[in-house]
Amino acid sequence: MPTPNKAAAVAELTDAFQSSNAAVLTEYRGLTVAQLKTLRRSLGENAQYAVVKNTLTKIAANQAGITALDEHFAGPTAVAFITGDPVESAKSLRDFAKENPNLIIKAGVLDGKALTADDIKKLADLESREVLLSKLAGAFKGKQSQAASLFQALPSKFVRTAEALRVKLAEQGGAE
Questions:
Q1: First and final CA of the chain: distance in angstroms?
Q2: DSSP code for 127
Q3: How far is Cα 145 from Cα 129, in angstroms, rounded to an integer?
Q4: 69-118 residue pLDDT tens
């Protein structure tokens, strides 16, 4: 029979899984408290990094409808619950893991889909949402200016063709 504290912890973790866009499981064995504090700061306000008990977290993930992470709940586990841009948080985790090899990214979930550690690294290699949106806007603007040039070219091409035809007909008429 679960204790009230464990039931409350499971409820809190279930809510965290349900309210986040993504979650990343990491192993933090060998990291100091100061390093964990630095990691939490580097994730910013868009992510919450929590050291969790595997059994309770597995129950909470299952209650939230996430079963793909079950095999990764072994060893010391911490979860980054990401509510903001998952790319930024993935970059923060990747960069911190480069500086601190004791942090191991195990797996994750993004919008209900399971991610491997390699998938999370690929996600971290993407450009931020703002950069991608600005590139998309630039592409749209470029396509609009190309369309405008095309529409302007059609009448002028028609006029040049008609003038060339008139000149040719005048030359043929003048030769006869």
A1: 110
A2: P
A3: 24
A4: 888 888 888 899 998 888 888 888 888 989 988 888 988 898 888 888 88
